[in-house]
Amino acid sequence: MSIDINLKLKKRAAYLSIFVGISMLFAKSGAYLITGSAAIFSDAAESVIHILATTMALYSIIISSKPADDSHMYGHGNVEYFSAGIEGALIIVAAIVIIYHAVDDIVTGTVLKSLNIGVTVIAGAGVINLLLGLYLIKTGKKTDSLTLIADGKHILTDSVTSIGVLVGIVIVMITNITILDPLVAIAVALNILVTGYKLMRESVGGLMLETNPNMIERISKILILIKKDYWIDLHELRYWKSGDRLFIDFHLTLPYYFTIKQTHKEEEEISAKLEEEFINSQIKIHFDFCKPELCAFCLYDDCKVRVEKHSINFDWDVKKLTGDAVHLIHPAKN
Prior knowledge:
By secondary structure, the chain is mainly alpha-helical. It has 2 domains: 3-207, Cation efflux protein transmembrane domain (Alpha-lytic protease prodomain-like, Up-down Bundle), CATH 1.20.1510; 213-329, Alpha-Beta Plaits, CATH 3.30.70.1350. 65% of the residues lie in helices and 9% in strands. The protein contains 10 helices and 3 strands, in the order αααααααββαβαα. It has a 3-stranded mixed β-sheet with strand order 1-2-3.
């Protein structure tokens, strides 16, 4: 999938999310004004955050799609981490507001009315948000957009909120125990707090270049699969992400007599293989030349200048590829 198509998909998803958010806000606010339910108020408050967060997500998508320039040589993709973090913070603020309002209702008492209208509105909102949240997460994974995934998770939380509110209102209608309404609102708010924390944690992880074990495993598997017998060692494998862009770098040890043309061809072949799996990626390889002490580790049978035969085997796995050069870490080599 091309970068342009990715951007179109992300923008379309963000615009849809904003439209749905505004529609849900009007519907839920109307239901709250009719019923006076703290639980419905909590759902409406979540929709306000939905609109603010999705608007920020759209801005983030537009900014992150800009190409690298003189002031941002690695591009603008990290803005997505800021967007996800701010969205998490807004979710937490919404939860605190909901709890405050619910506690006030418990203390002062609440008068509920026309709950059947509230049930209808919240049920419809729950289904719509469920479908929207799943769509955003699917699109986010397809386009490798943390912003859309975060927005989708947020909206799924909104859907869960609506379900919780719906159950609470139905119980109130059946039992006529009105204090259950603000208690449901508090329970919903606590669930929202957890989601907000997770989004902020993910945002901080991205800004701190936290390594995802699954990602480093995927990169390693490709390199191991395409390994040549003259690859004497591969070490210090690293990666980091900026939005949907992936930057990969590592050291590759080749025979010292390989020409610049040969090493350049090797880099092109490796980059092509990695880019098949990671479309919007940039690969940088630092080529090391072999030394006599590496002959014992070398499997290149056609080498005409080795000073000793191959005698030491080592595993080409994630631990090795992300670690130091083999002759520095292998215990059997002095």
